[in-house]
Amino acid sequence: MKAVFISDAHLKDEGSKRYHNLLSLLDAVKDTIDALFIVGDFFDFWFCDNGNIYPEFRIMIDKLLDLRNHGVAINYFEGNHDFYLDEFFGTFGVRIFQDGATFKLDDQKIFVSHGDTVDLSNRPYLLLRSFLRSRIFYLMQKGMPSAVLWRVARISSKMSKDHLARSPEGLADTMRNFSMRKFEEGYDAVILGHCHQPVLEQYMIDGRKRTFAIPGDWVDHCSYIQYVDGDFTHSRIPSE
């Protein structure tokens, strides 16, 4: 089994270096992986009304659907910048997860989530998240013209960033503690996004290797996690 885990690409400008780095990665792994895990915030914002896609996203969407047509299973976790995904991607066979989910990769039990709800102390963010995913906000965005909708999406994206609150290091500590509790529940690996800080830590617990990983991001690191036949590794695309 071979898989790639990507999080926090925050794509919005098709002309950016990180956008093209990510396109290159997807081309490179197309014939070698069985599954792609997008661990949230792949797009810097996402609202889609009746298939009306923000133009800058079209190239990347076509790339993802090409992978799916090529036989790669795509598991896309909603983040704090991209939600209401199933209406569009679900029609193409992309599996959408609003929250965390459990997977079996070879003999490993793996928990995957964007991770934005791990820090329960960040109540302002959790309230904002609840509002942005509410039925009321869903109906509001459905009635907006595309130009207004995308402007609102950018504003909501900035609000969500402003409410991250904790430092990446502090958030990584919270996620590490969360992962330890998951290991006690019998998970072999926990993969979380949201933090942006690349992390790959492995422990021997009860005679089994356990893995806590954060893929990192495509804003500063161009980093991702590879899984090959039971082993996790961190990889990066050089920025130059």
Number of domains: 1
Number of separate helices: 7
Principal-axes shape call? globular
What's the overall average pLDDT, rounded? 88
Backbone CA Rg: 17 Å
CATH class: Alpha Beta
Please name the fourth-level CATH homologous superfamily: Metallo-dependent phosphatases
User: Considering DSSP H and I runs of 4 or more, what fraction of the residues is helical?
Assistant: 25-40%
Distance between the termini: 31 Å
- Poorly predicted runs are none
* Tally of DSSP β-strands: 11
Q: What structural class results from the helix and strand content?
A: alpha/beta
User: What is the correct CATH architecture?
Assistant: 4-Layer Sandwich
| DSSP strand content | 15-25%
Widest sheet: strand ordering: 4-3-2-1-10-11
The biggest beta sheet reads:
6 strands, mixed
Topology overview:
Elements: E1 2-6, H1 17-29, E2 35-38, H2 58-69, E3 73-77, H3 86-89, E4 95-97, E5 101-105, E6 108-113, H4 123-132, H5 135-142, H6 146-162, H7 168-184, E7 189-192, E8 199-205, E9 208-214, E10 223-228, E11 231-236
Parallel strand pairs: 1-2, 2-3, 3-4, 6-7, 7-9
Antiparallel strand pairs: 1-10, 5-6, 8-9, 10-11
What would you note in describing this structure?
This protein is of the alpha/beta class. The chain has a single domain, classed as Metallo-dependent phosphatases (Purple Acid Phosphatase, chain A, domain 2, 4-Layer Sandwich). It has seven helices and eleven strands. The strands form two sheets. Strands 4-3-2-1-10-11 form a six-stranded mixed β-sheet, covered by helices on one side. Strands 5-6-7-9-8 form a five-stranded mixed β-sheet, with helices on one face. Helix 1 (17-29) runs parallel beside helix 2 (58-69). It is globular.
